[in-house]
Amino acid sequence: GSYLVNWCPVDQTALSDEEVDNVERDGSLWYVKYPLADDSGYITVATTRPETMFGDTAIAVHPEDERYKDLVGAMVRLPLTERQIPVIADDYVKSEFGAGALKVTPGHDKNDFEIGQRHGLAIINVINHDGTLSDETGPEFAGIDRFDARDKVVSELQEAGLLDRIEPYKGTVPVSSRSKAIVEPLVSRQWFVKMKPLADAALTAVRDGEVTFHPKRWENEYFRWLENIRDWTISRQLWWGHRIPVWYYLDEHGEIDESRDFVVSVEQPEEGMIQDEDVLDTWFSSWLWPFATLGWPEKTKDLEYFYPTTVLVSGYDILFFWIARMIMAGLHFTGQVPYSNVFITGMVKDKQGRWMSKSLGNGIDPLDMIEQYGADAVRFSLSVLCAQGQDIKLDPLKFEMGRNFANKIWNAFNVFGQFMVEGKTYSEPSTSAELQLVERWMLHRLNATIKSVDESMSKYRVNEAVLSIYDVFWRDYCDWYLELIKPESGAMDDQVIGQAMSLFERMTLLLHPFMPFITEELWWRLRPREDGESIMVAEWPTIREAELDSGAERIFGLIQRTISEIRNIRSQYNVAPSKAIPAIVSVTSGDAGLVAEISEHGRYFKKLANVEPLKVGLDLDKTEASATAVVGEIEVYVPLADMIDLSVEKERLQKEIDQKEGFLRSIIAKLSNEQFVTKAPEHVVEAERSKEISVGDELKRLRANLLDIESQ
């Protein structure tokens, strides 16, 4: 039917509300005098669009505005015309805006249209489809562009003494998202879909948990759209698109016979009937996509198998255009939501946070990035940057992370791959007793990572999952595990190869969704496989409970941190990596078992920190001129006679004390918070209390070491 629609004068087509952007722009507010018909005075009206005054059919005031109460029902003369229009009262009018009186132009403003419907006002269309003024404005203005006409109207109002004043005004202007032209509200005959019944069902589906948004905050935006939904203009006056499947009978003059009903049909129902010339809004076909592509309305096997699906991944920019509409269409036409989860991604912008555009010249061609860095590197880097629901500020240099990681993966394979014999089968050790400490630790870390990745993916936190894999592969597998299993010389033991290969294989499975090409290539290099045994059809890795080893995690973790502290000391004092240094590891907790474990794995210290000799024991004395570090229940002394600068060591210890004191203050503040202590889970509170004791003990030892240095 005929209704006020958004009209683009450039594309000359109707637009839905969602295809219109409201842009804030500087403009003017013109105060125009409308003389009372009895010449007893005038009413001043403030308007941002004086060129539309030819379509005014009333002046509206608020019913409780004392200034105009006595004028309701009176007639005023419409400036620059011979017409008279009434003064009406309507609650919509804002008394504080402008002069408190509103010109009502039902044919060119949505709010005015609704006022006109309430008061039975006539609709006068004074702007043509091309943005020029219509014949309704008279011969002096007809055919003039709307903005040129604005200047002419203002000029003539001034000459007639009817322009009271002009004020600067900043307001929102409707702009076509496609052509960027200012949209003109026009009354036009269009096809509409009544949306409220559809929206109500879609709102219920999300509120009842049939559909869940990730992140959940986007549900609020979804609710905002659907709770304020308007009927959808689905017809478009374009040369391309799906023709509206409506057919009309013609009368004897070859015109559409309005006395006969139209017929909805894809094919011509009867000879002589003509099809509507308009096409459907492109989103009208898109909202049918989840089931129309599967053979609907027929009950096909594909429809039965694939509909509904589980997850929709989409950007927030089409939350209403497509996501919400697919839910509405799915419920209406099939009785089921099309998907149960919606994962909203961020949008890719340039490194300054701007949208990419031709005019700015800031676009990044993904094919160029793939050529420069590799497809896996681009895919991996974007996954890392894709924090849930957050926009990506993309600098091409960020793809270097993915490229470097791909190189690391390839080189990691070669650490053990160089010792593999083609066609030979390698098996991992059959029992944990055959495993080294570092192997048991690495198995524990891998299983912990599988758990972490599964949890992150179940919450659609893709970047967290990718970073977990990156961390376990680079920092654990490469930096520690591979470094410790490398043979000093000669070949690598077959079982060591088998274990390294098994770990690598399971990590390639975790990595495959994010780096499909390199993982597929290495998958075939790891062991002989049958045709069709692609990594993409392999089973996703699962946690092996027997490989979880908290003991190995604790012991190796302490060794790892101790070695790191020794490395830091070497770096602090510029001790060459090739120079062996002695170290003393003093266990202060009385744990003789820990002393035995560290002593047994002294070669780890030799290999990764060039420590020789290593002395391990309970409560060992600190030697003079030693650098000191504290790792939990361990104190490390590195004698550096003739190499140590006492002032540097003093500064280093003070810095570490300051950091620990800050950490301790944050723990104490948390434990002093009654809400935290009473509401947090008991194990969380206990963990904080344990930290308080542990950090306090470390501080005591650090302060003692500082006093020792100061006394030398």
Walk me through the topology.
Elements: E1 2-8, E2 13-15, E3 20-35, E4 42-47, E5 58-61, E6 75-77, E7 84-89, E8 101-104, H1 110-119, H2 146-159, E9 163-176, E10 184-189, E11 192-193, H3 196-207, E12 212-214, H4 218-227, E13 232-233, E14 235-236, E15 246-248, E16 263-264, E17 274-275, E18 279-280, H5 282-286, H6 289-292, H7 301-306, E19 309-315, H8 319-334, E20 339-345, E21 348-350, H9 366-373, H10 375-385, E22 392-394, H11 399-417, H12 437-458, H13 462-485, H14 494-511, H15 516-526, H16 550-572, E23 581-587, H17 592-600, H18 602-609, E24 611-618, E25 626-631, E26 634-639, H19 646-672, H20 674-679, H21 682-710
Parallel strand pairs: 5-7, 12-20, 19-20, 21-22, 23-24
Antiparallel strand pairs: 1-2, 1-10, 3-4, 3-9, 5-8, 6-7, 11-13, 14-18, 15-16, 15-17, 23-26, 25-26
Quick recap:
The protein is an alpha+beta fold and 712 residues long. It is 41% helix and 19% strand. β25 (626-631) and β26 form a beta hairpin.
Number of strands: 26
What's the architecture of the largest domain in CATH terms? Answer: Alpha-Beta Complex
Tally of helical runs: 21
Q: How many structural domains can be distinguished in the coordinates? A: 4
> Strands across the major sheet, in which order?
6-7-5-8
CATH homologous superfamily of the largest domain, by name?
Answer: Valyl/Leucyl/Isoleucyl-tRNA synthetase, editing domain
Q: What proportion of the residues is helical, as a percent range?
A: 40-55%
* Overall radius of gyration: 38 Å
Average pLDDT level? 92
Query: Globular, elongated, flat, extended or rod-shaped: what is the shape?
Result: elongated
Q: How far from one another are the termini?
A: 95 Å
Which fold name is given in CATH as the topology of the largest domain?
Isoleucyl-tRNA Synthetase, domain 2
Output the CATH class name of the largest domain.
Alpha Beta
Largest sheet: 4 strands, mixed
Structural class: alpha+beta
- Approximate strand percentage: 15-25%
Any low-confidence stretches, pLDDT <50, length ≥5? none
